[in-house]
Amino acid sequence: MNTRSHQLRLGALAAAVALATAAAGSLSPTAAAAEPASFIANDTMWHDTAGNEILAQGGNVLKVGSTYYWAGTKLVSGAAKDVNLYSSTDLENWTFEGPILSQDGTEGDLAEGNWLGRPQLVRNPASGTFVLVVEVDGALGNNVLFATSPTVDGTYTPTGPSTTVNGNTMGDHSVFVDGDNAYLVYVGDNATTRNVSVNVAPLNSNWTAVEPAISSVWDNVHEAPAIVKAGATYYMFASGKDWWNATPTSYRTSSDLTGWSGWKTVPTEPSSANSFGTQFEQIIPVVGSQGTSYLYNGDRYSQFKDGAAPAPDGVGRKAWYPVTFASGIPKLHGSTDVDVDAAAGTLTVNEVANGRFDQDAAGVAPPQWDVSGTAGAAKTDVGTNGPDDRQLTMWHPSPYSAWVRQDLTLPNGTYTLSFDHKSSGGQNLAYAEVKNHGGPDIRTDLRTSRPGWTKRTVTFTVTTGTARIGIWTDGPGGTWLNIDNVSVWPS
Fold this sequence. Notes:
With 491 residues, this protein is an all-beta fold.
């Protein structure tokens, strides 16, 4: 974790917490289950520097100089749609710059009620013009609309009416910039059916029109395609087709944007069948003095959970996770928190996945954790901070035992495990444990009654490249233990 001082901007927060290195079993009281204070906080509602919810679905992040700009669609039920713009120098704290393209009136491409989706913001290096590429309603699927501005934060003016793409409407799209060239990467329709092909097509010299595709493959199972270049290899990522719902992420590779390998599923750590409750949107390169790191930009359309089409049930609209490319294979890491050093181009992470237990609905076993013991005794439950908060609840009306654990892959070194807990007391056994790290098992007793949230920290050293963290309870019926905000950071 780097030592820069930040104000927390991402997450619906109960309080700020300092992650202190402490001896095993040390504790301090907190007024409520606390949240971290200086990094990307996944599985929370994200807010800008003014404290307002960030509304930027389906968009992309563009770096201009040392500043990152994030364009995305404001999707609020019953309201006109805008393309909102936010700026940041650290990818953690985002300032709202305002809407840069808005719906207004009842006619034309930007009529209220029309679709205005997946905005892609790019800069043409030849002209210096900023170009916004968005989806709007077409006859079968979506048309593409181009709009431009001389400044990144200006009002974008459409260059003309929307058009089909090479004769047909389209589904999801992105724009990939490769040096002086830009390409529309899109899911294409045919005359009668939506979403039947994945295509790569150059944009013209002004980046305001689409030329014939250089790659077009029949594909009716993927959507939301986008390309990133890592080393000499082009990687195309895509989501599966399941409405608003979270899906696995797939990838394929190419050396020249024309001939692509077959699709493979992106491996995840730990294992996740739905990209940690998200849909793929973009891979964000974080280029700095010490190299390049990559962030997976994931959408979570949780605002549509109660609609007719599937949608995920986790907390938050966005989640950004590290991606690594060991041996040319991308791997998605489900870290709960990501601390970005944008100047260096490095990421430091809370190694625990779903450490806030906010990645799924209440009443289910927590994703990313192995759960065993009495059925229903360990589950995600609504937390004390309202419906946008979850916690682990270990309880049963009859005598019970329950265990939750997560195996972590860790470079050798010293780490601090931190978590918040409450307890009824009265259990036969209740403890947190660190094991398989190369040293003696470390247990922290949790049987003492604690009606208010208490923070515990445990320091341990890894010499095996792994560690298992877990919580164990065994008790009479009616006794309970709550756990929240689990983290493992380098000390």
